[in-house]
Queue: 2 jobs
Job 1
Amino acid sequence: MTSPMPFLATSIGFLLSDMAHIWLIGMMGAGKTATGAALAKRLDRPFVDIDDLVESQAGASVRTIFETAGEEAFRSSEHEAVAISARTVTPGVIATGGGVVLDAENVEEMRRSGEVVLLVASLGTLSSRVARAGSRPLLDGAPLDERLDTLLAERDELYRRAAHHVVETEGLTIEETAGAVEAVCHNT
Ligand code: S3P
């Protein structure tokens, strides 16, 4: 008698690949957006940036949303964008904002709909990258290194618990980082 297993395996494979987004998480300046765009190109998949989605839905920049509606309103739009992206059927590469792991429901949505990859970079690298962009309201005020250090201390455990895979990016180019993410993901 023919085993039912090949059919079962094919069905499970279909379901898995159908839900196989690649989510990139990590601190501001970890390279999520640049790596995500490069990886999407390599894999010929759609690329989604959660901050961009929030901005286009609100018709305002992240900074303006923080300043006019507050962080809570931003987090709620961010959650909506994560939930919508998680339910998109075509497997994509999705770059998140650094605070996405603060909401346990976001983590659930990401893990349920694909593989979650944490991009790790040194504080020096994070700091040199974000210093060039003034678009991050959470970095206003205190000296940059201090602020990043505090945020990392608050979030590191959340990042590590949310991630299926961790990619150390120090010394890697964007293309090399995209290759490293591709290598750790199973459903590409
Ligand atoms: C944030 C990170 C930002 C953006 C917002 C809040 C955070 O995204 O979502 O400023 O809480 O770390 P990037 O990580 O892409 O800079």
Job 2
Amino acid sequence: HRSKLPNVGTTIFTVMSSLAQDHQALNLSQGFPNFKSDQKLIDLVSSAMNSGHNQYAPMAGIMELRVAIANKFEKLYDTSYHPDSEITVTAGATQAIFTIISAFIKQDDEVILFRPAYDCYDPAVELNGGKVVSVQLEAPHYKVNWDEVKKIITYKTKMIIINTPQNPSGTIFTKEDMVILEDLLRGTDIILLSDEVYEHIIFDGEKHQSACLFPDLKSRSFIVASFGKTFHNTGWKTGYCCAPKELMAEFQKAHQFNVFCVNHPVQKALAEYLQEPNHYLGLSNFYQHKRDLFLSLITDSRFKFVPAKGTYFQVLDYSEITHEDDVDFAKRLTTDHKIASIPLSVFNTHNLDNKVLRFCLAKTDETLNHAAEIINQI
Ligand code: PMP
Ligand code: GLN
């Protein structure tokens, strides 16, 4: 009765990664690369430590890094965020998201999100007394039905959370989606939390539609990003968020008592590493190669798929293989076939008829080849 999250257990990422380890299965479950971050970046962190950047950083992050982030927005999206007042460096995207929600959501406020949804949004809303109202994206294309969204926006709606490219489905919001959203929100005070951690992983020549590209969205948005996804170092837990000054001021009131500030030497290193745009601009090609390789190897398997448009995940439909529930099937694949994945129902999908698993493709080509061999025998 004391629990504020009575329906929450250990996250599926932890469960599946440890099951994979116990059974020595190939781990394509939790999303993280099994290859190294650039040695140059690692050297920059150690030199930052050796040159004495080992005490607290400023609350919002070191100025050099905030300037580098602002420059990236100018260069990629032709838009400006002021390094003094509109950018905060965070302990990964997770902390940014939790703090944004804590800073704004009160008892009975409604938050709209799209399912399947990344798992950290719901508990953050719930802990703050808010209520999640959701719209289901239908497999296999996971496109938004905007008429449904229109119906659930009320005077209680305080925030909408979007995630493009989307974990777990790999779908993206198009320019048309963003324009419709912009129109829908016009004249309201609804805050947009735009989770863009996979902004640099988008395929088939598509362009990432950041919320900052749409003026009437930008003025109400927090853009959330994660260096872990971009530079192959999820364990460093460093990310950032940007928002107009008034929103950011509220965010920082909560942030200063949440973590106060984040890892100083890593910020120092990232500030320098970001100076070279090629360090992130090549990422879409890098991961498109992996998606294409993996899918070309499993075309004759019994799994069905629509190629992911972005992220380093690919969902596979197993409805022609078994009627088993997705959690049971994912566990059985791990213990018996030695390959771990994530069952899609954990992303709070209401539509439990979907027989879908998510596989992480941030793996060496060798691992992907091995994974495909296993998948072809299921
Ligand atoms: N949002 C999404 C959609 C994610 O996939 C992840 C990482 N899996 C996060 C947020 C959290 O990012 P970080 O590791 O930087 O906290
Ligand atoms: N974001 C990663 C994923 O989707 C996992 C992060 C975590 O373990 N919480 O797999």
